[in-house]
Design brief:
With 494 residues, this protein is α/β, with parallel strands linked by helices. 47% of the residues lie in helices and 10% in strands. The strands form three sheets. Strands 4-3-2-5-8-6-9 form a seven-stranded mixed β-sheet, sandwiched between helices. α2 links the parallel β3 and β4. The longest helix has 29 residues. The two termini are 31 Å apart.
Length: 494
């Protein structure tokens, strides 16, 4: 049974003789970037259209109230079939027995027991096994007002978006929580924007949904089994050119939450370091995933992204500075090693050459978000020209010092370090304005998005997508059940 009913011709077949992508976790055949369409979800299938996962660990006290409230809301407002899956993560209290008792009473509730703890582990296993075309999850405390569920699911059902997340950090969100949680949450998202070039506003809100066809491609490449799973999935989705829809939510903090936010924040920082390494090493096949899944030009490939948070001048400066610190340390180490066996000018040349190549590659990938092999040779050639400017500055500084006196080794190090810092400032300007400046390409015109939203009573006031596309109005969604079955395929270029 297929997860979604793709309209004929929406996913083009590869040319005769074309090979499918190998070694990338079972990717579908290559799809031309910018031409991938998302069909509306077929709501007439025998399987539940929506599968809402509720991960739980020792939640015996709150579970029954949560499940009854969620079931009643979906039964009264969601116009399609649904299922609620309780993912018990090795609970040691009566959580599992409570869930099984309720599942015998409410036929839409099912229970999955896992021997390992961790929200990421639970969601990965349940979502990969689910036959439903739309997958969602929410925390057991239901801190998020369920009125946001309609706007969260509508763009996935209509085919407009690939993932949808609730956000507590936009101007239209209404949040009640302590200053400590607020500070940690905003600081974490600031780091994601500055260091990883993320664009989503709230990584950790426990209120998310994804199309199953997208989940099948992304989840095998995620590793985190705990709280960082959300961030890993969202970063990967953005790197692959997918559309993430954001819904401002009304959110009330649970004062009895057992989550250790400090420990979770530290684990998230470790996750960022590990994910960065995975992206650099190629463990995650981003180019292949992007070719198969991207809706259009990946935002990171366009200089237009500099108008957004993740691609801002400040974000680029932060990433460029971090790479510059590592490059400078590597330069000094190589200079000192070479200086013991050769004259300072040759040692300076070799140290600059080695670090310049690595620096260009790192800035290309992280500072300016350029992936793939396109323009790679040109970027490195222009990077070597920039290297020549740095060589001239440092060599000139060394020559000036040696012409005045016979300097000690520490004077040489201070001289080349100061000259290297000056060259770094020049390098950033040249990288930004010349080497990695976007070469505009002719893009196909976007085709209008269908108005049907996929829900009977969405509330537009709850949804302000990050990409600027409005959630369909109540009038557009009035005949939702009929419109979903007759909506044409959607082709969108970001």
């Amino acid at each position: 049974m297929t997860l979604t009913d793709q309209a004929p011709g929406t996913l083009p077949h590869p040319p005769a003789g074309a090979a499918t992508t190998a070694g990338t976790g079972g990717l579908p055949p290559f799809l031309p970037t910018g031409r991938t369409r998302r069909s509306p979800v077929n709501t007439g299938t025998m399987v539940p259209v929506l599968d809402v996962t509720v991960p739980v660990y020792n939640e015996e006290r709150d579970l029954e109230q949560c499940l009854r409230r969620l079931h009643a809301y979906l039964h009264g407002t969601f116009p399609h079939t649904f299922r609620i899956t309780v993912a018990d993560n090795a609970s040691t209290d009566g959580t599992l027995k409570t869930a099984e008792r309720i599942s015998r009473e409410l036929r839409e509730v099912t229970v999955v027991h896992l021997e390992e703890k961790g929200r990421g582990n639970a969601l990965r296993k349940v979502w990969l096994a689910s036959p439903s075309p739309v997958l969602a999850y929410m925390d057991v405390d239901l801190s998020t007002d369920l009125a946001a569920l309609g706007p969260l699911l509508a763009p996935l059902i209509s085919g407009h978006s690939d993932l949808a997340i609730g956000t507590r950090l936009t101007r239209n969100s209404r949040v009640i929580r302590g200053p400590k949680r607020e500070f940690i949450s905003r600081s974490y998202n600031f780091l994601l924007h500055s260091l990883m070039g993320a664009h989503f506003s709230d990584a950790q809100c426990g209120f998310k949904a994804i199309r199953a066809d997208i989940a099948q491609q992304l989840l095998p490449h995620t590793l985190d089994n705990a709280w960082f799973f959300d961030t890993e999935l969202l970063v990967l989705a953005e790197k692959c050119g997918l559309r993430v829809h954001e819904v401002p939510v009304d959110w009330t903090d649970d004062p009895d939450s057992s989550v250790d936010i400090v420990q979770t924040a530290v684990a998230d920082l470790r996750g960022m370091a590990r994910l960065s390494k995975d992206l650099v090493s190629g463990r995650i096949p981003v180019p292949e995933l992007r070719a198969a899944l991207a809706r259009g030009p990946v935002p990171a490939m366009s200089r237009g992204q500099e108008q957004s948070q993740g691609g801002s001048l400040f974000g680029q400066l932060v990433r460029f500075g971090a790479i510059g610190v590592v490059s400078t340390l590597a330069y000094l180490l190589i200079f000192l090693m070479c200086r013991g066996v050769m004259d300072p000018q040759l040692a300076n040349f070799l140290a600059l050459l080695v670090t310049a190549v690595a620096n260009t590659a790192a800035n290309r990938r992280f500072t300016f978000g350029i992936q793939g092999s396109g323009y790679a040779a040109r970027h490195h050639f222009e990077g070597l020209l920039v290297f020549g400017i740095g060589l001239a500055l440092t060599s000139g500084a060394l020559a000036l010092v040696h012409s005045a006196t016979t300097p000690e080794r520490w004077v040489e190090i201070l001289t080349v370090t100061a000259a290297n810092l000056a060259a770094t400032a020049v390098k950033f300007l040249l990288f930004r304005l010349w080497v990695f400046r976007h070469r505009r390409m002719t893009a196909p015109a976007a085709v209008g998005t269908p108005a049907g939203a996929g829900l009977s009573r969405p509330d537009p006031s709850h949804a302000t997508p990050a990409d600027g596309n409005a959630v369909p109005s109540q009038a557009d969604a009035a005949d939702m059940d009929e419109s979903i079955t007759r909506l044409p395929s959607t082709e969108t270029a970001d």
